[in-house]
């Protein structure tokens, strides 16, 4: 395994591309927009320099060398060189279907596909391709370079060889694989999405301010980050899409997204990536006052 294709240069794609390049892989970073690709490379450059400053004791990273391993492109045909592809597009079935129908025609027969998803069925994705045994779920956590564990999902047809290759790929990046079976939301998001959604409901009902909701989880349970700050980090638009997938998959009203969550996504308050969510990032105005109106 030498060349890794990374489809989608958003928050997760940036993290996967950086981690793979740091591990010595050649990376083909694919997106539909040149501006997004340019921003991705700028973010990777900044991340590498920032992490070096943050932890002087960490092994030295040759930023220039890491960046030269990453090729950015809008042309899917370059994935013909890939040995392993990690897909990171939006959590919408129509979008993922289009991606896999395309890359299945382009990538060589030995190439394996990793679906970086928080809720969509790996078995269903595999059925879109002619290589279902080579399709595996790989749910990275954000920020990818700083998280050492990845939820790996075995689809109905995923082979033992694919699971082993996925584990080896992650190990080379210094990450551990925890293998689970294919089920909507898997383990992490089936629990986490409910927690975040219920925390949003508490704010909506005026039970507590966002900071106080999170403080209880951080101080009482030792969580590094409360559910609302976690939602901001993941992206509230992604949280909403994941809840909709879970509700559709299980037909259970417990996954019904909070009205406030829908309003915030419609208003463009997506969390860290938009500068504002339940908390403010880069502005002085706290959002708690806005949310109470």
User: What is the CATH class name of the largest domain?
Assistant: Alpha Beta
- One letter per element, helices H and strands E, the order comes to EHEHHEEHEHEEHEHHHHHH
Q: For the record, what is the CATH homologous superfamily label of the largest domain?
A: NAD(P)-binding Rossmann-like Domain
In the CATH hierarchy, the architecture of the largest domain is 3-Layer(aba) Sandwich
Oligomer: single chain
How widely separated are the two ends? 54 Å
Radius of gyration: 19 Å
- Average pLDDT level: 93
Show the helix and strand layout.
Elements: E1 3-7, H1 11-22, E2 26-30, H2 34-54, H3 63-68, E3 70-73, E4 84-87, H4 93-106, E5 112-115, H5 122-126, E6 135-139, E7 149-154, H6 160-172, E8 176-181, H7 188-204, H8 210-221, H9 227-234, H10 236-250, H11 259-266, H12 288-291
Parallel strand pairs: 1-2, 1-4, 2-3, 4-5, 5-6, 7-8
Antiparallel strand pairs: 6-7
Helix pairs in contact: 1-2, 7-9, 7-10
